[in-house]
From TrEMBL:
Superkingdom of the source species: Bacteria
Protein name: Anti-anti-sigma regulatory factor
Amino acid sequence: MRREAATADREGFRSLRVLHHVVPGPGADPSGEWLRSELDLEEFAADTGAMVVCAYSGADWDLPVLQQIRCVHPHHVGSRPVSPAFRVYRTEQEGWTVTGTVDSDGAVAFGSILCTLLAHTPTVRLRCETVEFFDAAGMRALADAARHLPDRKIVLEGTNETVRLAWKLSGFAVPDVPVVMAP
């Protein structure tokens, strides 16, 4: 896709639109390939300015899998299954934005997303200006993901005072948890 995007740009096309019709494979695993694929498409869209539309037929997917998929899409249309109260999407060349509240309903999805990102880059930057709160389960997911690959680091930028204080008081602001929280 990147080669086609570069060709379209050289040929003077103003925009590129990509339709990604997603069907679950046998034994669709929410922590597996589909998550990496979705995050790759998000990076592609941010890097090229392309518009990527992912189409999911709800009848073909398990509800918990759809709930996790929804977390990595900045926008959606159609029926809205109940999902975690946060989103993660690409905003810059080297950063991601997190919005909402990372709580017990979305902690597993959040941890899976972070582990997937950490597997492909030594430092994951998360812009958190619109994160309202991490509950205990959300903080545990963040800490566990950071410990998953100890040679990697997670940097949370723009965290509010409540999030930073809760992180510290919960005992996670220690050297063996490679997470940096910055205002």
